[in-house]
Amino acid sequence: MTNPVPLTEIWRGPRPESVHLGHAVICDSSGGIVEASGNPDAVVLPRSSAKMLQALPLITSGAAHAHGLNSEQLALACASHEGGEIHTSRVRRWIDDLGLTDYDFRCGAHMPWDKAAHKALLCSDTAPCQVHNNCSGKHAGFLTLNRQLGGGPDYVEPDHPVQKAVFEAFEEITAETSPYYGIDGCSAPNPACTLHGMARAMAWFAAASETGGMVENAAVRLWQAMVAHPELVAGEGRACTELMRACSEPVALKTGAEAFFIAILPQRKLGVALKIADGGTRGAECAIASILVRLGVLDPDHPTARKFRNAPITNWRGIETGMIKPAAALA
Question: Mean pLDDT over residues 126-151, rounded?
Answer without folding.
Answer: 98
